[in-house]
Structures are given as structure tokens and as C-alpha cells.
């Protein structure tokens, strides 16, 4: 698994945990005049360039749109969690690549349409915990404890309730959002 284009970073980091695979929670939202990913050639796409959204955009353009690479579109760096606001305010954006709840709002509040999502690319987009190799060697037990607490927290209904409050939705709605990801609830599941 390649995590970085910087060889020094890649050689000196380790993935110690896969927390989930996105299954629809990451998505591309388009304006009504965009009918297929091929229509995005030369168009302006809002995207958080410091996130996995870049990989999703690349997959959509190459595998669904027949484009060769990211250089065939124009990109505007936006904050992914605010993509719905950018989509609403910046009418020059032909599409945004984001995640929920921003994707939901771009569609239902601002007239966008779903084009493709991580559900179209099973097991391709995952969230991971990456640590420096030397830190792992020095603090292995601390990382084991962290992972143990992580998996315990996933089973705690108080955590679910708090996350729902943070996102200003009820617990039932937040639970539906979680269905957009395959979340590993034990270390064994993630292996």
C-alpha cells in the first residue's frame, strides 16, 4: 500500500491500523450539466487536495471517465468538510469531491447530483493510522493501548451519541451515516 509520494516518509512510516473502508461516504457531486465523468475534462473541481479525495477523483476520472490523469481537469483547493458551502457559493465549480455530511447538503440543499462514490470502488479508500517507524519502536505498548481503547470506544453508545451531537444530527441519522463505511470493530477484523 502506497501512502505517500515522498520516499523518505514512505520508508520511515508504518500503517499500524486500518480503521475503516469507505463504502459510499466519499463522493463526487456535480452540477446538472455534467452527465458523465468524461464531461469533466477541462472543468473546475473543488477538492481538498490534502485528503484521500484526490485518490477518489483520480479513480473516477480514469476508471469511469476515460481520462488519463488529474491534469485533464482544473482543481480548486477547498476544505472538504465545507464543500457544500463552496458548491453553493462558487458557481464556477462544476463538481466537488467530498464526504458526508457535506456531500448530502450539496445535493439536497444546493442542487447537486451524485456522480460516483467510494461504493463504486470497493475496498479502495480506507482510513488508516500511520506512525513514524522510530516512534513505533519506542512506544509500541502505547500504540497497542491506543488501538485497544479505539476498538472499545466503537462499541460505546455514549461515543455514538456524542459524535451525533457534534454533527448536529440525532443518533439514528448518525448511525445511518456510519453505514457508508465498513468500520472494523475488533483488531482481528482489520487484518
Describe this structure in words.
There is one protein chain. This protein is α/β, with parallel strands linked by helices and 191 residues long. The chain contains 8 helices and 8 strands. The protein has helices spanning 7-11, 53-64, 83-89, 102-108, 133-138, 140-154, 157-166, 171-178, and strands at residues 13-22, 26-30, 44-47, 74-77, 95-99, 113-117, 126-132, 181-183. Strands 4-3-5-2-6 form a 5-stranded mixed beta sheet, with helices on both faces. It has a 3-stranded antiparallel beta sheet with strand order 7-1-8. β3 (44-47), α2 and β4 (74-77) form a beta-alpha-beta unit. α3 (83-89) packs parallel to α4 and α7 (157-166) crosses α8 (171-178). The longest helix is centred in the C-terminal third of the chain and has 15 residues, at 140-154. The protein is globular and about 55 Å long. It starts with 6 loop residues before the first helix and ends in an 8-residue tail after the last strand. The model has no long low-confidence stretch (mean pLDDT 89).
Amino acid at each position: 500500500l502506497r501512502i505517500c509520494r515522498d520516499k523518505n516518509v514512505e520508508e520511515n512510516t508504518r500503517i499500524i491500523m486500518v480503521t475503516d473502508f469507505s463504502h459510499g461516504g466519499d463522493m463526487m457531486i456535480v452540477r446538472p450539466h455534467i452527465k458523465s465523468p468524461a464531461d469533466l475534462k477541462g472543468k473546475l473541481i473543488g477538492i481538498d487536495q490534502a485528503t484521500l479525495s484526490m485518490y477518489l477523483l483520480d479513480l473516477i476520472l480514469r476508471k469511469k471517465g476515460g481520462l488519463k490523469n488529474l491534469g485533464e481537469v482544473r482543481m480548486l483547493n477547498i476544505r472538504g468538510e465545507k464543500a457544500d458551502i463552496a458548491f453553493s457559493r462558487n458557481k464556477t465549480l462544476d463538481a466537488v469531491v467530498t464526504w458526508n455530511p457535506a456531500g448530502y447538503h450539496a445535493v439536497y440543499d444546493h442542487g447537486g447530483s451524485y456522480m460516483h462514490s467510494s461504493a463504486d470502488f470497493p475496498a479502495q479508500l480506507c482510513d488508516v493510522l500511520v506512525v513514524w517507524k522510530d516512534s513505533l519502536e519506542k512506544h509500541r505498548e502505547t500504540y497497542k493501548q491506543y488501538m485497544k481503547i479505539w476498538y472499545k470506544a466503537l462499541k460505546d453508545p455514549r461515543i455514538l451519541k456524542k459524535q451525533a451531537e457534534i454533527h448536529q444530527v440525532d443518533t439514528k441519522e448518525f448511525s445511518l451515516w456510519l453505514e457508508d463505511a465498513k468500520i472494523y470493530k475488533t483488531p482481528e477484523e482489520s487484518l
